[in-house]
Design brief:
The protein has 257 residues and is of the alpha/beta class. It contains 10 helices and 10 strands. Helix 3 packs across helix 4, helix 4 packs across helix 5 and helix 6 runs parallel beside helix 7.
């Protein structure tokens, strides 16, 4: 196995008197779709924000693509940021810009690509995420929830990243839309050779897309591995997460397929 693309080692995160992480460690391999799971308040979204340099932990280290994101200069961080794409839970599109302008913004900021080529890239990314071409002229308020997700994904893919970070990518979508989005992530991973890190509560996404996962509980990683390996863990928090009626029904259905 090649060296991990992301290594999280002994992360400690604290907000005032509230310690969220107390020695969190995990690793993510190249080409994986990796799930960060856990109950509300377990620190999974906080950990994602630390990976993408929006938060700084109190201790520990995170290495991404061979570079420490904790012990790095601002110029090194800027270069790292250009190697990943991010889909935030609510899409985070700029409301005053069209879809095309949202997708183009990072290309204008970080590259010297001429505008004619940027327009071609925008059209290609819109097609890549399964949106009709005319959506490029729409504003975010004119889009459905599913279209916002796809437009935001197109923006995240604008500069051909090596890593894709997804925060609750199927939240707010109906079952058909969520299944379609899961399939899109699988197709993009294969097409673009992406490594994907996904924070999710969606059991269907976990069953259908995730290769390996970590469950955060009690300020640590309660279990890490494939879904089968994690479900065999006797840790009470794991049983609570997957052992309820909804979780058991999904697992049973998956085993029958």
């Amino acid at each position: 196995m090649s060296d991990p693309v992301i290594t999280v080692k002994d992360i400690v995160t604290q907000f005032g008197d509230n310690r969220v992480h107390d020695g969190v460690s995990l690793h993510i391999n190249k080409g994986e779709i990796y799930g960060l799971l856990g109950g509300s308040g377990s620190g999974k979204s906080t950990l994602l924000k630390e990976m993408i340099l929006l938060l700084q932990p109190q201790a520990g280290d995170i290495t991404i693509l061979g570079h420490s994101v904790i012990n790095s200069t601002e110029s090194e961080r800027d270069l790292l940021r250009q190697r990943w794409g991010i889909l935030f839970q609510n899409g985070a599109l700029y409301s005053s810009l069209t879809v095309a302008e949202n997708i183009a913004i990072s290309l204008k900021e970080y590259t010297d690509i001429p505008m004619t080529l940027i327009n071609d890239i925008v059209r290609m990314k819109i097609d890549m995420v399964g949106l009709p071409a005319h959506v490029k002229d729409f504003y975010p308020a004119e889009l459905s929830g599913g279209m916002v997700k796809r437009a935001s994904l197109a923006r995240a893919l604008a500069r051909d990243p090596k890593l894709l970070f997804l925060d609750e990518p199927t939240s707010g979508l109906d079952p058909i839309g969520a299944e379609s989005f899961d399939q899109l992530i699988l197709e993009l991973r294969a097409m673009l050779d992406l490594t994907v890190v996904m924070v999710t509560h969606d059991l269907d996404s976990i069953l259908n897309t995730v290769d390996r996962l970590a469950v955060l509980a009690r300020k640590k990683v309660a279990a890490e591995g494939t879904l089968t390996e994690v479900c065999q863990n006797p840790e009470p928090d794991i049983k609570a997460f997957f052992g309820g009626k909804r979780g058991q029904a999904r697992l049973h259905q998956k085993n029958l397929e």
